[in-house]
Amino acid sequence: MNIIWARALVSIVLLALVCTGVGAFVGVKFGLALAVVALVGQMVFSTFHKQRLWRLLDAPVYGEVPSAPGVWGEIYYRLHKLAKRWHAQVRQVEQQHSRFIQAIQASPNGVAMLDDHDQIEWCNAISEVHFGLDAKRDLRQHITHLVRQPDFVRYLNSHDYKDMLIMRGMGAKRQNVLSVQVFPYGDNRKLVLSQDITELERTDAMRRDFVANVSHELKTPLTVLSGFLETMRELPLSEEERMRYFDLMEQQASRMRHIVTDLLVLAKLEGEARLPGDQIIDMRAVLGHVREDAESLSGGHHIVSADFDDGLSVTGSETEVLSALGNLATNAVRYTPEGGRVQLSWRLESGNAVFSVTDSGYGIPASDIPRLTERFYRVDRSRSRDTGGTGLGLAIVKHVLQRHDAALEVKSEEGRGSTFTVRFPAARTTRRQPTPA
């Protein structure tokens, strides 16, 4: 017997005892009348609380619990405990759902959930960007009414989702490339995952171009060498002709050696995970080598001048900085006609160490300036080969400056020369202590 039946039985027994006692002293009729009144009162009391409970269950408000004596108070108390437990469970589920949504929103990939009619149930912010959607506006819209690319429509309707779909011309500027794959789940529902692979595509294209350019750059001198060797083997040549052919072959071999050397330097810079340290560079020696290399390459055919602040220095890798600044100086000589000027400068500007090379050479078209640091990119291929450049110098400069937190600025005008400026950050700029006499 539970507590409800026990309490009801006790109430009936007490009521019977009271009525019997009253009937014994006052009379049987009065005792029965009292019993009837008590029963009617009990029925009214129960009916009131039943109606109260009905209203509470019909429109519950969490936290509002009526008070009542006896069994009804116990019912309300237990109902409150049950509602409290359910409320805690609901809050836990809501928190888990909120964390799940936050995790999907933080994902770098787009996520869109479709119902069994391919209508949008939910999508995260990345998916909105990828497909041009609005999670609130496009709710319950058929996805093919919004993403109308024929390839996507065919892919979604094919029900064959084992392979990914590559979609081009996506995003706000219609320049992005997306990788899209659909995953069925649940009751004929679908999960559409998207990933922006624009950078991967660009990197892959650069890799293909790089391999093609390396092959082309090495093929040319190899072809020349093979031709000269065949000529020397099959044709009778005078000693003067033989020596001339040997000189030309040495030039082509030297060109291949420079290409391979620059490729190795570039590979080392790209693969070096450790950043250059805070060791102070002897910039007086570095700038001296840079000027000597420029003058040696010029061979007296250019006016090479320099204005160096001998006390100014930077921290980092001396060999890397020498390679970067040397490439800028020799490039200026290569692309400046005989009799032109090449001005080297090393100075302090607004707390930053600044190296600049100004030449009076051919100049660079404005459209080519953003691509100058790409490997093997040349403004004029025929002129570049004549000057002996490998096409890797500015790529090396870019990687060295990135490793030293420095920036490269290029100003040029066709027919009037160029200025290449390197700005080292103030954090790497320092003053070298004077050498004691």
Q: How would you summarize this macromolecular structure in one to three sentences?
A:
The protein has 437 residues and is α+β, with helices and mostly antiparallel strands. The protein has helices at 3-25, 28-58, 70-106, 125-131, 143-146, 150-158, 198-234, 239-271, 283-298, 318-334, 381-387, 393-403, and strands at residues 110-114, 120-123, 165-170, 176-185, 189-196, 303-308, 312-314, 341-349, 352-359, 407-413, 417-423, 429-431.
Secondary structure layout plus pairing:
Layout: H1 3-25, H2 28-58, H3 70-106, E1 110-114, E2 120-123, H4 125-131, H5 143-146, H6 150-158, E3 165-170, E4 176-185, E5 189-196, H7 198-234, H8 239-271, H9 283-298, E6 303-308, E7 312-314, H10 318-334, E8 341-349, E9 352-359, H11 381-387, H12 393-403, E10 407-413, E11 417-423, E12 429-431
Parallel strand pairs: 6-8
Antiparallel strand pairs: 1-2, 1-5, 3-4, 4-5, 7-12, 8-9, 9-11, 10-11
